[in-house]
Amino acid sequence: DFCLSRGLGDVYKRQELKAPVDVPARGVIVEARVDKGRGVVATALVQQGTLRKGDFMLAGESVGKIRAMTNEMQKPIIEAGPSIPVEILGLDEVPNAGDEFFVVADERKAKEIVDLRVTKSRHERMSRQQAAKMENMFSDMGSAQVNKLNLIVKTDVRGSLEAINSALHDFATDEVAVDIVASGVGGITESDINLALTTGAIVLGFNVRAGGSAKGLAEKENIEIRYYS
Hints:
32% strand, seven-stranded antiparallel beta sheet, single chain, four-stranded parallel beta sheet
């Protein structure tokens, strides 16, 4: 991710593009992951303004106060200007690669924006699920019932999630369909186990594991969890 973000920064420099520095920072998230012990770690490329340690950042559906910043040499820094890629700590959720970020002065307003985005995303997801159910219902009419393997997928890095989901769908056959009922970044939670219980899904963890309470609930309810690296 740093190689990519540094390359993007070099493009800015070679083209001698100019960007304002005395304004609140804006830019794009290049990559993000969950790091054990440090929490959410995101690589950000500043496109305008100056990003500073202590700034309150909004990125997609993620929000938080920057508590630490490091440069591409893994050296601590306190600020970064345009075309500078930085690794930041402090966001509450893992943003998507490609999400735009910006610094806000009002923490309350930022959280309101995030809540609106989360609500909109949830409604859109529910609409897609309902549309898919209707489509499946009509396609199944007049045909033999197809066996379905329900899966819940959790990974440690956002960038690998789409590739893993795509690979799992490739395992589908004419006799067995693969349905990923939910997927996301982070450890396996009680919510994942409860969803598996209601959907009859198997939970797959890629470089992540179930927390103590989630593991206990899975054992109690006989929910299958499989771990992979």
